Amino acid sequence: MGKYIRDPIHGLIYIDNDELKIVDNPYFQRLRRIKQLAHTYLVFPSALHTRFEHSLGVCYLCGEFAKRLNLEEDEIKEIRIAGLLHDIGHGPFGHTLEEILIEYKGTNHEEKGSEIIKEYFSDILSEIGIDPIRIGKIIKGGVKDIVARILGGGEEKGIRISLDADHLDYLKRDNYFSGAEAGDFSIPYLLKNLVRFRNKIALHRKAIGEINKIILMRTELGRSVYFHKTRIIADEMLVKATYYAIEEGNLDLDKLWLMGDEEANKYIKESCKYSKDIIERIEKRDLYKWAVVGKFKGYGFKDPKVKLEYIDEEFYNKVAKMSLKEKFEIEKEISKEVGCDVIIARTPPLEFREDKIKSNIYIWDGENIISFDEITSYGNLVRMNREIAFISLICDKEHRNRVREISLKDYL
To answer: Is residue 397 part of a domain?
Structure first.
């Protein structure tokens, strides 16, 4: 018979009996304990939603996409289950610790998800007539058919604007729970205007306005939520605490990866004194502060406690793409020089040229399709990227004066 689940974004979500077997699995239930936006709740207290409800929402939207595109019943079942499991490879704190996974295991959360499905969900999926290997490939982006495209799979690298079930759910959900009020768009209207054109998903041209609303929401959420400096600082502190727990303690990364946020905090604290001190500071919101900050010209600020330096794209991209190992070595050097703990806090690699920003969105004019990229401008998104981008040195507020003597370009 299945169950109906109340959801503030989509209303009632129906989960059938086969899907419930997945939802009731303890490795899926673990997603209840992984916050969708990691430390964002330190700035937006209501941003406590988890990977669990996001996964339910993506499952629902995958089914709605599939029905609108007239897929077969077995395809609808398959993509709904892929939607349910698409984030199963996330470790505690979601994307925040992914750098650690890449550094030590040479893999990412999609690859990890495929491994977890194979180990913990194969029997369930086979029992309900679903191929676990194909689900893993869909999640990794290794399938290029219409079914996979509903979840955003099978696209070329570099896609930054996407029309798929995952993106639509997390934008709506993050906006709602953060309280950011970053705009809105209509999922029912988007679904009504979906068109299948050969092996691609397109939108009727009259829905272009709705796409612009999606881009506006993504831009505003990036500015106010996703790249808020306090969230970035807390995330960088966690990453360094985890690194020390591995290097100087006895932390087992595979064991950590199957934990929820609070379990992970406890485990990291048990690994070594430095990690314990850092995690306890995050828990008390006693965070490190900016001492030196690199920003693009035109996007600076005035704060007598912070040294502002102007940087260019070449410098930013070099530091933003720096490996964790290289970053931690430089942090050790700076910390030794100034006599206190210093962390390099940075926003992730961003795109500053319109011609490099790509979408997977196609517009149907009644006869043919055209890429949305050919008829729009991403100028606002580029300006937002330049506004939010920063490279900084952070430390305990008591040691800011020492660290302000440092110049970013002396070490980076």
So the answer is: no
Domain annotation covers residue 270: yes
User: Is this prediction's pTM over 0.85?
Assistant: yes
Q: What does the pLDDT look like over 40-71, one tens digit per residue?
A: 999 999 999 999 999 999 999 999 999 999 99
The tens digit of pLDDT for each residue in 189-239 reads 999 999 999 888 999 999 999 999 999 999 999 999 999 999 999 999 999
Which residue bears the tokens 């470790």? 91
Give the total number of structural domains in the chain: 2
Beta bridge mates, 358: 159
Measured CA to CA, the distance from residue 369 to residue 349 in angstroms comes to 31
- Residue 197's alpha-carbon distances to 64, 148, 150, 200, 364, in angstroms, are 17, 15, 13, 5, 8
CA distances for 95 relative to 131, 217, 386, 393, angstroms: 27, 20, 22, 21
| Separation of alpha carbons 327 and 311, rounded Å | 18
* Parent domain of 254: 228-283
